[in-house]
């Protein structure tokens, strides 16, 4: 249930792969469309609406009439990076505990009702947000809104519920992190990349701090952050804005504000001078791998056009089979089994730009690293071509059309943006901003951010004993 704001290619991954504009279903004409045509796309369509209830709850409606279903999500502007020192994991722990029942609803009833009507549900926590999700036939929208509104205001917890659930979270950490060399190294990598920021603390929490979390911690966190003035309701599907707003007032409108969470003040993400390295060797590792990470601005903290240029840069460097890294290292050089780059654009604070690759058998990790960094340095020194930029923009914008069929993805991208400092307008106008990116801007952000010091991570098999044959 833990989650990071997973950028698969940047906001191009958040907004394009994760999300999709609601557009008429049309024949495949993307090969004939121009960048200018793509730039006119509005993510979510032209009927997206935004309203704020009297209690501060923000309501966003994304009509999509192609199927009689709805996606209902409640997002809270709080995640792992908002936790107090010593309380790591409380945001994720509370996510688990939110399924334990309320004054009005016995434990398990909400989930049972969703299942009975053929719906789906989930919840996830990241550094910047926590979200709860249901997808049901449209006639059951009022039902899930009622249950979720009840959960926003009437949660009840007992030690008998909290203690076993803490053990569940500890086991989750054990399975996903402690028993995984790659996950353990990833935690260390984040600590070194973000030494002065809560982004360096795992969302699931440190083991010793999880063990100390209790009912009072959970209730205090709930009372401070799970209040309508700190939440966003997003409904996507076969609905009208008027109908959703009426239901929202009927259900969520009854929830009173319990607190004012205040500004999300956090230690500023700092770039520590000097290149740093982390490594891990384990007999559980069969395939070596490496990555380099740089601190870069997010779409929230970036100067105008920098975030979009970083998205295009990540796509040119490592966004697929036509990218520079993949072509040079996997296809032409035949020295790697994988290679790529990604940029996590949606974050409240400064974020990361990642390069990664894994060597083929017989290829030294050090040699592969030199080749990969040489590709980055070539962009710094010589820039990128107009053809590369146009191809990347076309690919990213075309993906916005191809990804249009999942309304839950649409709801997720709006929620991610709105909980990390973005706006509905910023989400919808992303294609226009991508269309304006130039080769000069791509080289400029590469020089500005990727020439800074980086953190390198090496995951390797255990060294063989000297006498091993």
Give an overview of the whole structure.
This protein has 469 residues and is of the alpha+beta class. The protein has 2 domains: 11-23 and 42-254, Metalloenzyme, LuxS/M16 peptidase-like (Cytochrome Bc1 Complex, Chain A, domain 1, 2-Layer Sandwich), CATH 3.30.830.10; 276-461, Metalloenzyme, LuxS/M16 peptidase-like (Cytochrome Bc1 Complex, Chain A, domain 1). Helix content is 41%, strand content 17%. The protein has 18 helices and 11 strands. It has helices spanning 11-17, 35-39, 90-97, 109-116, 141-153, 159-178, 181-193, 207-212, 215-225, 241-251, 306-318, 324-332, 365-382, 386-402, 407-418, 424-428, 430-435, 439-449; strands spanning 49-52, 58-63, 69-76, 120-125, 130-137, 231-237, 276-282, 289-296, 336-343, 351-359, 455-461. The strands form 2 sheets. Strands 1-2-6-3-5-4 form a 6-stranded mixed β-sheet, sandwiched between helices. A hairpin with a 4-residue loop joins strand 4 (120-125) and strand 5 (130-137). Helix 11 (306-318) packs across helix 18 and helix 13 packs across helix 18. The longest helix is centred in the middle third of the chain and has 20 residues, at 159-178.
Multimerization state: single chain
Rg over C-alpha atoms, rounded to the nearest angstrom: 23 Å
Whole-number mean pLDDT: 91
User: Structural class given helices, strands, pairing?
Assistant: alpha+beta
Distance between the termini: 44 Å
What's the β-strand tally? Answer: 11
Helical content stands at 40-55%
Which overall shape is indicated by the principal axes computed on the Cα atoms? globular
